[in-house]
Amino acid sequence: MIVSVLMSVYNDEKYLAKSIESILNQSFTDFEFIIINDGSTDATLDILDFYSAKDSRIKVIHQTNTGMTKALNFGLSIAQGKYIARMDSDDISFSNRLEIEVDFLERHSDFDLVGGGTQIIDDRDNVIGIRNIFVKNPRKVLKHINIYQHSDVMFRTSVLKKVIGYRDKYRNAQDYDLWLRISEVSKIAKIQNVLGQWRLNASGYTVARKNEQNSEASAIKKAHKKRMKFGYDDYEQYMPEPAVTHGIKIDDDQYDYIVGCLLVHSLKLKDGRKKIKPYMLRTKLYHPILIYYLSYFPKFIVYCIFFINDRNKILFS
After folding, report:
1. What topology is assigned to 3-113+133-196 in CATH?
2. Cβ–Cβ contacts within 10 Å for residue 268, how many?
3. pTM of the predicted protein model
4. Coil vs helix vs strand at 243
């Protein structure tokens, strides 16, 4: 077994089938597909049972809800592959994703983790941007910002002996913590290939738990800095924020505003302006107004503004 593809899913019936099919349609076929159904209450169970009966490479585990971090750790504990490829239940992998990442790790035995880039898509599968922070020194940049998405990462199973796995107290940015800890014991790579599509999901962690995720990421950066200086961190003393109810959704105008910002960032100015306007008129907040009027600027100026802003985020966030 070369690859174990690992997914945890909770109530994602809307996008789950597309996500599963994108893995089943990979050009690289020597994999097992471990899917942890973390106590879903919608049609997720039926969808998973349908696909597991259809393809023997799928191994479904139904369990009571424990949260993504614990579910992923259980998946890691039963994975048999030489490599682990993560997959989120609302994302899409391009058909050559596994092939490209396996090829890289096979040719670079001193690297334990590789990731690429993704297109950003909305809830209707429209491409609204691209995220591929390609840098020459990913270890250096990673300590400031998470340059990987879960669904474009592959790492060696053997590195888990050095870093154990995900840490349970981190429920919203557990991936960032794991990538940093891998970077402390091994080489990591960021390749230019765009390997799939990352969905801007209104009920996903990045949107619905943005504040919790940012707070956790800040604690993770501090822990990394302390490990690099002293060889240990304060994880045992870390107190996570109170548990957040699953599936907190923003309203349609606010979702469209976030989509609009990404469209403006991608220089699709007219489309972005249309998405931003309803939320701007309703809230009259400073940032929506700023982005709305920025969308009337020439594309070159908008590009320069976002380029400078993105560099500052990479260097100082």
Report:
1. Spore Coat Polysaccharide Biosynthesis Protein SpsA; Chain A (3.90.550)
2. 18
3. 0.90
4. coil
